[in-house]
Design goal:
The protein is an alpha/beta fold. It is 48% helix and 11% strand. It binds zinc ion.
Length: 298
């Protein structure tokens, strides 16, 4: 017996000695777009995980015990704020951790929308502030400052990474403006049921108009559909982005009868996976503008 125990002891000590756990700063982001910003600023110094994956809905996420463990182990938790992550306070409480939490949207000029209130719950401000690249720069600066506060030894790394990334975002913002400038002004409008683009609209001047009849929540009646078709014709809206509708045939039917084009998929709340068309924030904005241009160009 004694011999057996003695034999175990060194093995344990060795295990402990070999346990070179991940030295990267553990950072948790609430959803994929924030995760991308965090990776851009944190680089190899941080290990970034996201709670809501690329196929999840950040508005109605149900955290698991594994998510609570991620938050408990994190040095920094990055959230959007503006009422987007209503599930977050309970998760933080459940985690029992004392990670610093940074609200990435701090400092953006809020935009409200009644439709957004209807679609996204109680908070009347639109939480999708990242859809303007100028706001994304505010997010990145907030994330940079929070990383420096959480890991002061990495300050120069975070400052360099953020500076490089902010230059890319400036170029991206110019790219979007140049692309929109090529669309005739009277064609800069679309019908879209998911009203996640009020910041994009304010920044770049493409109007996202909610359909009068159909919604994503309920089955559209023949009268709803007729109202939307009339709306599109009257306002001469060139394209419809109604990919959220429960029945995709309905989008094509509305477009055909109203004489509008069916736009492609716009990414609003999530990146695609790595092999998809929007694996990073910059790729997402480029994809969206390309999709809008092909729907709205003459
Ligand atoms: Zn949304």
């Amino acid at each position: 017996m004694a011999i057996a125990l003695a034999a175990l002891a060194p093995a344990r000590a060795q295990d402990a000695g070999d346990d070179r756990s991940d030295q990267r700063i553990p950072v948790v982001a609430s959803f994929s777009i924030l995760g991308d910003f965090a990776r851009a600023v944190g680089g190899a110094r941080t290990g970034v995980t996201t709670l809501v994956g690329t196929n999840g809905d950040v508005h109605v996420f149900t955290p698991t015990p594994a998510d609570a463990r991620k938050v408990a182990a994190a040095r920094l938790v990055i959230v959007n704020g503006l009422g987007l992550e209503g599930w977050l306070p309970r998760l933080v409480q459940a985690s029992g951790g004392n990670a610093a939490i940074v609200v990435a949207a701090t400092g953006v000029s809020l935009r409200g929308s009644d439709v957004n209130k209807m679609l996204h719950g109680k908070d009347s401000s639109d939480p999708h502030a990242w859809q303007s690249v100028a706001n994304a720069k505010i997010y990145v600066a907030n994330i940079r400052d929070a990383l420096i506060a959480a890991d002061p030894a990495g300050e120069s790394v975070y400052r360099d990474n953020a500076a490089n990334y902010l230059v890319k975002l400036d170029a991206l913002d110019r790219e979007v403006r140049q692309a929109v400038a090529r669309i005739p002004p009277e064609r800069r409008k679309v019908i879209s049921a998911h009203n996640a683009f009020t910041y994009f609209e304010a920044a770049y001047g493409i109007a996202f108009i909610a359909p009068q009849g159909v919604s994503t929540d309920s089955e559209a009646s023949a009268r709803d559909i007729a109202a939307t078709i009339t709306q599109i014709r009257t306002a001469k809206i060139p394209a419809v982005f109604l990919e959220d509708l429960s029945d995709p045939r309905l989008t094509r039917q509305i477009a055909a009868e109203a004489g509008a084009r069916v736009g492609g998929t716009l990414y609003s709340d999530s990146l695609s996976d790595e092999k998809g068309e929007a694996p990073t924030y910059i790729a997402m904005v480029r994809h969206n503008i390309k999709t809008l241009i092909s729907a709205l160009a003459d």
